[in-house]
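Consider the tokenized backbone below.
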């Protein structure tokens, strides 16, 4: 991945992709002093760019990291990272991390670095293949409590248990894992939020110990605009058999129907199809109908 041609944005300028390197003694690598974003450009426009950039700054603020650029500069750099690669449709990854000027838990004299790379990451499945749904395992790892980890930050450290959960699921032939929270309620997947459907109503857990995804917020708004009621409440695993449809949301995942979670089966249907369609229309529209 690091040996590609082209350029990316690194600390204020465009550099050759292959030369965008960090030292092995980087604080962000040893102590996870690192936050990032994941967003998509559609037709030359990054969907909810301002919201993603703002969340990057919020994530950094929560970790006590000061980003040496303004939000407008970072938003412009996200577009530049796509344009330099000649992309109109791309996945964009801004990352902020503490450098290698000192090596200790304390990071008082490290510099903050910012890099933004864009690459092509199409949705590999056409909508009808997607409607078959993906299969999820149930992870043994739980999302931590908000007083155990900075759960509202998109912080690299929080992804350690996500990669472990995803690998464990993949080893058993599943596409991804559903994670429970520290109380045992349904939380989310390893890189996407989760929704269920029962009697024409959407149910999703409140984002009180995991990322309140920008796609999650957009899908809730779109559902309400289309007269689909949305209930945010704690969900127990013993109610999973009462739901008929299930789907994941995320900037990378978009709206992805789920057919199975461990022993529980779902049949992606009208609500999955409707939300996939209206989300796709909104991300491709010149002006989003969603105000977050
Ligand atoms: N939860 C996790 C753990 C994620 O990594 C993501 C992807 N950023 C999401 C939820 C969805 O967030 P968004 O819709 O803002 O991409």
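A designed sequence for it:
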């Amino acid at each position: 991945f690091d040996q590609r041609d082209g350029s990316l944005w690194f600390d204020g300028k465009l550099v050759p992709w292959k030369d965008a390197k960090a030292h092995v003694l980087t604080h962000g690598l040893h102590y996870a002093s690192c936050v990032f974003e994941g967003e998509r450009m559609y037709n030359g426009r990054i969907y909810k760019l301002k919201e993603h950039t703002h969340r990057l700054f919020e994530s950094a603020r929560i970790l006590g990291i000061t980003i040496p650029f303004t939000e407008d500069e970072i938003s412009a750099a996200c577009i530049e990272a796509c344009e330099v690669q000649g992309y109109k449709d791309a996945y964009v990854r801004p990352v902020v991390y503490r450098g290698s000027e000192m090596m200790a838990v304390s990071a008082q004299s490290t510099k903050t670095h910012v890099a933004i790379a864009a690459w092509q990451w199409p949705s590999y499945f056409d909508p009808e293949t997607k409607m078959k749904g993906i299969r999820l395992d149930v992870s043994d790892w739980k999302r931590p409590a908000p007083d155990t980890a900075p759960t509202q930050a998109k912080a690299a450290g929080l992804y350690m248990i996500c990669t472990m959960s995803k690998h464990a699921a993949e080893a058993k032939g599943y596409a991804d894992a559903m994670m429970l929270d520290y109380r045992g309620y349904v939380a989310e997947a390893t890189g996407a939020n989760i929704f269920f459907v029962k009697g024409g109503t959407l149910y999703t857990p409140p984002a009180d110990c995991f990322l309140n995804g920008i796609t999650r917020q957009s899908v809730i708004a779109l559902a309400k605009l289309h007269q689909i009621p949305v209930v945010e409440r704690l969900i127990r695993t013993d109610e999973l058999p009462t739901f008929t449809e299930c789907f994941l949301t995320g900037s990378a995942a978009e709206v992805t129907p789920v057919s199975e979670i461990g022993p529980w089966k779902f049949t992606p249907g009208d609500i999955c199809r409707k939300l996939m369609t209206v989300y796709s229309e909104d991300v491709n529209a010149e002006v989003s109908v969603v105000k977050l």
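The chain has two domains: 7-119, 127-284.
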